[in-house]
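Memo to structure team: turn this sequence into structure tokens by end of day. - J.P.
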Amino acid sequence: MRRTTTLASASILAMVTTVFMATPAEAHGYISSPPSRQAFCAQGKISCGQVKYEPQSVEAPKGSRQCSGGSRFTELDDDSRAWPVTSVGNTVNFTWTLTARHATSTWEYFIGGSKIASFNDGGRQPGSTVSHSVSLGGRTGRQKVLAVWNVADTGNAFYACVDVQVGGGNPDPTPTVTPTVTPTVTPTVTPTSNPGGTWAAGTAYRAGDQVTYGGSTYRCLQGHTALPGWEPANVPSLWQKI
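Reply from structure team:
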């Protein structure tokens, strides 16, 4: 009886060991900041499929230039969807969140099929988060950045696309229009020295001077040079009817 139990235990242990050894060590990770497409899926910001529950699992063979990497998460490749966009400057700090760390060869970043940055880890094991400062090369407007994490000891990589608005704001901002203001011009009148008689614009009057205007006589209350519109009947502060 004891021999039978021992043999059964040994068989179970062998099966567990075989399964454990047959399962390769898996690396998992995705860009969490600025949020990648799968990060927004996980946050519920946009309707997605299974990737909503496993944003870290966008894994596929190396060499792809698709957001899904050619994996089953094909909704990530659809650029016509209303993916949220993050406003950034021309240099962006991309942060990966790794749920399983694995030896890494390189991290690569692409825009429109062109590689804009690469970081070589030389087979080292990364920490639980990894950040890279990446220059977007003077690009402006809306851009889609494809980030690739190449695992060192397998043929696979992890993929993440990040939609950004370089420079922030609206891609087609409404120009600010400054209204043109036409200044009010005060006519220049050269004064004369002919007080008395009929009131006339351009005449320099002193307090006490008397003039006639519109059939009436007026006394000047304070010295001034008469301007059009300052007729004695119109400016009682300057002229007093007598």
